[in-house]
């Protein structure tokens, strides 16, 4: 673990949480899904001395080429895992920085309504997803922690020979026996569908009535095209009626990551569905994007016109949130547990927090094969309330940006609703949560 070099809430970690990391465990873990959350989880577990296999449906690691913002809460976790310095060195063009939103009107002359207040140590990351994943992959020695590619999990059952063990089945007909399964297989999680079978369809992600147009643009090109608004270093939320655009710089301020949202507020969320078989992500023409914003001001229109190959994402999420993230010895992390609207830039961060909490609980000196179900219950008790709260808050944030917040669409109304939006997301003490989980395990007689 690297030395802490900056002030961190996690620096108050009780030593008990970490003193166990070298104790050999009598169980193995299988992680289904090698996205950002699965890989952070794998690295954490391996560093805690736990044996891990990763099963990934794709033929190699890969991420769609877009930016992802990682908030100060998740940056602290990366640092605590000893990953931050290496992610930084792998991606030197995107060092951690204080990245508070500027809220600007999308129409007229783009008046600034509010600049979110930050603390000096509110360091966030804005990284290219593929670079981030590449940086993470380098931490896993394939001879110790193999990733099994082309393995799409489609079955989970108990072993007939040893009912304490779990069998994962894959679409190619092969199987794998393990002690604990972590479902990190994203928003369309098969693991989630297999463990939540209560007939409620709660495991199915809902269309959120919001589409997002995404793309990357050269900042130099935008300056040449006459964009006057300062696009760096702060991320910008351009606000309008039922629409908003998020822009933030990546690649050492050379590239602007653009996500332009359009929401249909005329129908309650959950009532609209995409036609069967329609893909959630499709390429679209530049004209389609620009038409949605034709009444907006010069700067956002110029940005949208400059996107070379825009894609349209029909945003889905787990609304309403799940009632449980675990069943038996199977637990969910990341989007599999709480796929949310991206309006707080907090989805991946919550998954990284899941990985941290899961790792610390599994690494505890008293965690063993015989009490894994209880330890997963502790994980669920800690993580579900927090991540589900962020999931609901993400929807509420989008409503504010698009003029549908509690205090209405006026500038003053939006400003009122924007106050301290990120406070609870960024400044949360995860180690205190973990201690609550450990205390619960003691109260239940699982830990002594
Ligand atoms: C428009 C948009 C903008 C966003 N912006 C941000 C942001 O700024 N900040 C932020 O924190 N978050 C953001 N998010 C959310 C963030 O992208 C996700 O929360 C995060 O990528 C989820 O990571 P994950 O590892 O849980 O899932 P994924 O990245 O989806 O990875 C899942 C992996 O599992 C594999 N898999 C799937 N099914 C199976 C199976 N059955 N068997 C084996 N493998 C399987 C997949 O191939 C994939 O590799 C945004 C999301 C969207 C849509």
From TrEMBL:
One function term, GO molecular function aspect: FAD binding
Domain FAD-binding: 27-392
GO BP annotation list: secondary metabolite biosynthetic process
Record key words, sorted: FAD, Flavoprotein, Oxidoreductase
Leader sequence segment: none
Lineage, highest ranks first: Eukaryota, Fungi, Dikarya, Basidiomycota, Agaricomycotina
Xref: PANTHER family: FAD-BINDING DOMAIN-CONTAINING PROTEIN-RELATED, HYDROXYLASE, PUTATIVE (AFU_ORTHOLOGUE AFUA_3G01460)-RELATED
Superkingdom in the source lineage: Eukaryota
Listed InterPro entries: FAD-bd, FAD/NAD-bd_sf, FAD_monoxygenase
UniProt entry tagged with the keyword Oxidoreductase: yes
UniProt KW Oxidoreductase keyword: yes
Pfam families the UniProt entry points to: FAD_binding_3
Name this protein carries in UniProt: FAD-binding domain-containing protein
Gene source species: Dentipellis fragilis
